[in-house]
Amino acid sequence: MPGTPEAEAVIRVRDLAARFDGRTIFEHVTFDVRRGEVFVILGGSGCGKSTLLKHMIGLYAPAEGSIEILGVRMDGLDGAARVALLRRIGVMWQSGALFGSSTLAENIGVPLEEHTDLPAEARDMVARVKLGLVGLADAAGRLPAEISGGMAKRAGIARAMALDPPILFLDEPSAGLDPITSAGLDALIRQLARDLGTTFVVVTHELQSILAIGDRCIMLDKEAKGMIAEGDPRRLRDESRNPVVRAFFRREVLA
Amino acid sequence: MSATAPDPATLDIRPDGPGRRLAFRGGLDAAAAARLWPEAMRAARGVHPLTLDLGGVTALDTAGAVLLLRLEREAHRAEFQGLAAGPLQALLDRTRAALDRPGPKPQPALPFLGRVGEATLRRARGAAGQVAFLGESLLAGLGALRAPWRLRWPEVLRHLDEAGLRAFGLTTLLGFLIGLILAFQSSIPMKQFGAEIFIPNLVGISLLRELGPLMAAVILAGRTGSAYAAELGTMTVNEEIDALRIMGIDPIAWLVLPRLLAAMLVMPVLALLMNLAGLLGMSVVMGTLGFPLVAVVNQLQAWVHLKDLVGGLAKAAMFGLAIGLVGCRAGLGAGRGPRAVGDAATAAVVGGIVSIVLLDGVSAVLFFRLGW
Fold this sequence. Notes:
Largest sheet of chain B: 4 strands, mixed
Low-confidence stretches of chain B: 1-5
Oligomer: heterodimer
Structural class of chain A: alpha/beta
Number of helices of chain B: 12
Structural class of chain B: alpha/beta
Shape of chain A: globular
Radius of gyration of chain A: 18 Å
Helix content of chain A: 25-40%
């Protein structure tokens, strides 16, 4: 079951540190993400949430520590082994990062064409299924410039899911969206997690989203340069004694 | 999910009464679906009744479900057997529901005449936009003449540096080589008439009047026109141009004028550099033919007039203005998305080169009429 301690860890981060030009973003970050849960990385602006995500998907090499995804060390991996691992994760980028000169259906076809030998007809059908899953069946032939921000994020999720990866990473899914669209996206994430059993790692600072979708979370802090809390977000909100965590969940100005 | 399905899927095809029975076994993922697709499709075509035995399927992903549903469609009907209720069945149902949903309606294609009309209208609108842009730039330029202190001079300097100073090396190299090649090529037929001494006349006049300005303009169109289009195009795509307009700032005066001014000012300099480097290249060839430098200079002094040089440099300034206008217009008129920026840069270079050749033709007629 999602979030229960019995579920195996699909991602293991151990003593991770990120440094740029000698400046430490965070260090001593250690946590597990378990199969089937929606795991939220939260924190204020500039605390290194997106940096942590980029470490986890292998874009940045860790200064210290290690990251293991589905039992494979992510850092230092290259060649065919890296591609094999990347096929099994999907990433939705903050702005969607859809390819501007291709339609939504073609966007989803890219990983399918690159990583499978499916005939064009099958790729097209898979793309339609994925767009249907995120409620964009009617927009298959449209270009990214012709759709709204919320649609671009959903299309980004559809593309991330093209190869049915067991783990999806979402970077700020609700940033820049109106509350209704944002709530719709949260519902979509919950539904996908429930229906597909996909593990989600979500970076966000939207309080409502965190409480709506998160099974478990960790909180990063800029001052502490690392993790300051870990656990069920609802319990953190109600029980945490850390002033920063309390201020975050209660939208207070930190004294 | 290849990891959760270590057993590769297999397909067993058997006759089943009048129809066929396709038994799948193992993990039916994207790789397996791709592998089994042609064989399964052949086996299912027009078969009735078709039975899909899924009792041995241990894993299924979207691509696998798509294969099964496509087989069903190929045979018009199929009976699914053996799939236990659970996540696999749920995935199959979900995929079926998504595929059954009607897709977007295709746009009705216009008849031939309609397409011609549409294309004509688009062209006409584009041309009208060009004229309007020319008018706007002219007005902004007149405004700047009345209040020159309002022009962004640091910006003009930056563009002078980028379009001019940084192109000096390339221009000198190309000019030198062109002078060298021109002199060398013409020396072969000239030698037959013993007329090598007239090579400076030929190279000098063709460089100063035509080739110098033209080649410098081609360099400017490639280096600077495209850069203008890409920079302004990116700003258009990022809504920066709209932001300027909303701040009450005229993007023509703010962005276009400094660029136009820089392109216009820099072109005579580049053309002059091109000319001088070309003459130097020619002198080198003359030297190898046995003519000392002083003979070359004398020949040039006697036959090449100041009006050749000034006419060429005036043309160069005109070319610079045209390239700047075409480049800025392409950038500001860019559509949306990354492809729009590329299109704008292409339009700037192609449009720039076409316009300078056209202008060159016009000025040839003009200079002839004026008796230059």
